[in-house]
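Page 42, continued from yesterday. The earlier attempt failed because a stray header line got pasted into the input along with the sequence. Redoing it now with the clean sequence only.
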Amino acid sequence: MPQTQVSRSAPKASEGHETGTIAVRWVKSQIGYDRRQRATLRGLGFRRMNQRVLVQDTPAIRGMIFKVRHLVVVEES
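This time it went through. Structure tokens are written below.
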């Protein structure tokens, strides 16, 4: 019986779907929250409350949004 070669590599980000952008707005103050969450807000590009930023739709950015989901709102872009 012939053996088939199975690829064990993970799919690349460019394969499967095209990455777009997500609009995120900062709606709740960071006061009283962990410094890592404040750093995540800065990493997303926020400088002040009620600011709206456009970020790339990647798994890393989605993870950042998930960590501060109680402070931000994802809007239709």
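Notes: The longest strand covers residues 21-26.
Reminder to self: strip header lines before submitting.
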